[in-house]
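Supplementary Note 2. Why include the ligand at all?

Several targets in our set were suspected to adopt different conformations when bound, so apo predictions alone were not considered sufficient. For every target with a known small-molecule partner we therefore ran a joint prediction. The input for 2-acetamido-2-deoxy-beta-D-glucopyranose is given below.
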Amino acid sequence: MQKLSPLISLRPLSFSVAATAMDSCVLVLCGKSSVEDDVAKRLKNNNLLKLPDDTQLSLLLHSEMENLVKDDCDSFNLSLFMNSISTARFGRFLIWSPRLSSTHDVVSHNFSELPVGSVCVTDIQFKGRGRTKNVWESPKGCLMYSFTVEMEDGRIVPLIQYIVSLAITEAVKDVCDNKGLPYIDLKIKWPNDLYLNGLKVGGILCTSTYRSRKFHVSVGVGLNVDNDQPTTCLNAVLKDISPASILLKREEIVGAFFDKFEKFFDLFIDQGFKSLEELYYRTWLHSGQRVIVEDKIGDQVVQNVVTIQGLTSSGYLLAIGDDYQMCELHPDGNSFDFFKGLVRRKI
Ligand SMILES: *[C@@H]1O[C@H](CO)[C@@H](O)[C@H](O)[C@H]1NC(C)=O
Ligand SMILES: *[C@@H]1O[C@H](CO)[C@@H](O)[C@H](O)[C@H]1NC(C)=O
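The joint prediction is reproduced in token form.
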């Protein structure tokens, strides 16, 4: 499994707990149409899904889950989600769990068994993937999902996280528009964090493997919709702007996400990132940002200031120095914050 570069992974959205030893998980399989429902039956009958650890999985079809989480109005509403998507590929096969170690493990470990575009959603995640080996628990109220994408051109695989980020910010705007709600100005902190009013409310993690001449990309998304701890969340900000407003639902956001993502992904594959660049730059936080880079001159490290212009074709930051020299910014590998300890490469 290879982490995509340039990438800084999803940081914990909440607090850490000790790793749970043996666990058992319920996965509910649900399709948009009878085609995906047949896939669900096949996976269940042949018991095809597995997790990397010793987790015991029980697979259920949507039609069998009635007694499981009855009356729990906080849990993800599968019908509401399925009704809210109108995609041709993405999000049409859903795996939902009330509590799961990691949505990313479910889709990445069993990539080939699942139809491309399959999504796994959980209400509580207790082994979310982070950059370090820490174990993180994300409580209810966070929207957490992972889904699969197949790509052929390795050169553009690292850019997929930007398409995902943009699909989320645009999806949230769409949901607000559709419900007549005030506008929530979700922003992208490059490379893969989501910010609201200067606070982190979400992030994206992409990993890929190369199999049978294709890149198997697993995309993980975490977005704090309903939990105002430890920072803020979408609905808290919405209530601040307009106390009487109806709140955003996770199902509607992830539904709108797949509608956006499918459109953006097709544009991206057909016409390249250029077709989305303008929208992306309007949504990220970095146009014109001045950052310090460390230049090596002989044995000396000299700090210089450069101004961010955009992205390079390989997905790194494009910047211009005070000497008008264009450069590509790379992390020095020592710092957790991408914007510290940058080194520049002349281009
Ligand atoms: C699903 O993932 C598990 C854990 O990595 C693996 O052992 C199993 O072979 C996978 N199943 C299939 C059908 O690929
Ligand atoms: C789930 O969504 C469906 C479709 O929108 C709705 O009819 C149903 O009442 C919802 N269930 C719960 C428990 O909210």
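The mean pLDDT is 86. The CA atoms of residues 202 and 223 lie 4 Å apart. Comparable summaries for the other entries are listed in the accompanying table.
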